[in-house]
Amino acid sequence: MIRGRATFALALVCAVIGTAHTTPALANPISGGVTPGITPPSRAGGSYSARLVAPVRVTSRPGRGRVVARLGTATTWSHSPQSLLILRSREIEGREWLKVLLPVRPTGSKGWIPRSRVVVRFHDLWVEVRKKNRWLVAFRDGRRIRRFRIVIGTRSTPTPVGLAAIYERNRQPDPDEFLGPWSLPLTALSPTLKNYGGGPGRIALHGRGGDSYLDPLGSAASHGCIRVPNRGIRWLARHAGPGTPVRILRG
Questions:
Q1: In sequence order, what are the beta bridge partners of 51?
Q2: Which of 115, 76, 81 is nearest to 98 (CA)?
Q3: Closest alpha carbon to 120 in 96, 91, 92, 103
Q4: What pLDDT digit, counting tens, does each position of 25-52 carry?
Q5: pTM summary value
Q6: What is the pLDDT of residue 35?
Q7: Which of 136, 150, 154, 168 lies 20 to 30 A from 61 at CA?
Q8: d(CA 46, CA 123)
Q9: Is 5 a residue whose pLDDT tops 70?
Q10: CA 93, CA 96: separation in Å to the nearest integer?
């Protein structure tokens, strides 16, 4: 987790990433079914994200149900454009709705937003964090292209498992400080730390510097964040963007 001098990403606990492209025009949706062109995220097939261009109320059902979140067009920490991983899509009564992964507690929360308030983008990069073996593995079109040894959370401050997505991409003001050159916060939040360094205990992928070099790669020593070699975090920052899926596995 973060120690030492406050940095731009001090609110984090730890995270991960994928390459984004604007999608072609989607085909007309089939009423009540999955919208053609938007498929559920997968390692082989890629994924889609929704960049918010207007504030939204997120509901538990498409266009109805309880309000589970209210989101603006910018993220809460660095005020970057807000992009959410799309899990599926539907059309109901002539209006398209997207089920998205939310950057709120509890980790893994989901809800529905209107398609009319977003710009959809495609990601061909898929990231896996393998806690047991302490590796971060990046895939493109289902093929492994990069692998980096990592540091994960301790038993008392674990890195949470499950599907997450890149929430922000923050260059650090001093690459020699604890977080290294980049911090890539995720939608996932710490299960044990509700507040850390002025933020909500958000998990992030970040580099290494200063005291973080004291914990060797392959160890379980962080407050939940995923520490990546600096060459790896630079590669991720260059090739991944907000909304890219990150699957955190126990094995």
A1: 83, 119
A2: 115
A3: 96
A4: 343 332 334 455 799 999 999 999 999 9
A5: 0.87
A6: 54
A7: 168
A8: 6
A9: no
A10: 8
Q: What's the rounded Cα separation, in Å, for the pair 56 and 69?
A: 8
Instruction: Please report the beta strands in the chain, taking only residues with DSSP state E, as ranges in sequence order.
Output: 20-22, 47-52, 56-61, 64-71, 83-92, 95-101, 110-114, 118-123, 125-130, 135-140, 143-149, 152-153, 162-165, 170-171, 182-189, 202-206, 220-222, 226-227, 245-249
Q: Is the pLDDT at 147 greater than 50, yes or no?
A: yes
Ramachandran angles phi, psi of 17, nearest 5°: -160, 180
Q: What is the C-alpha separation between 82 and 187, in angstroms, rounded?
A: 11
Which residues fall within 8 angstroms of residue 35, CB to CB, at 6 or more apart?
Answer: 26, 27, 29, 89, 90, 91, 96, 115
Q: What are the structure tokens assigned to 30, written together?
A: 């089939």
pLDDT of residue 36: 58
Residue 116 to residue 136: CA distance in whole angstroms: 35
Q: Is 70 exceeded by the pLDDT of residue 148?
A: yes
Phi (first) and psi of residue 111, to 5 degrees: -170, 175
**Residue 245, phi then psi, degrees to nearest 5:** -75, 145
- The whole-number average pLDDT for the span 82-88 is 98
Question: Residue 197 CB: number of other CB atoms within 10 A?
Answer: 18
Q: Which residue has the higher pLDDT, 90 or 15?
A: 90
Share of the chain above pLDDT 70, in %: 85
CA dist 68 and 154 (Å) reads 31
Q: Distance of CA 48 to CAs 203, 244, 245, Å? A: 21, 8, 9
Residue 67: what residue type? V
Question: What domains does the chain contain, in order, with CATH numbers?
Answer: 23-122 (2.30.30), 125-249 (2.40.440.10)
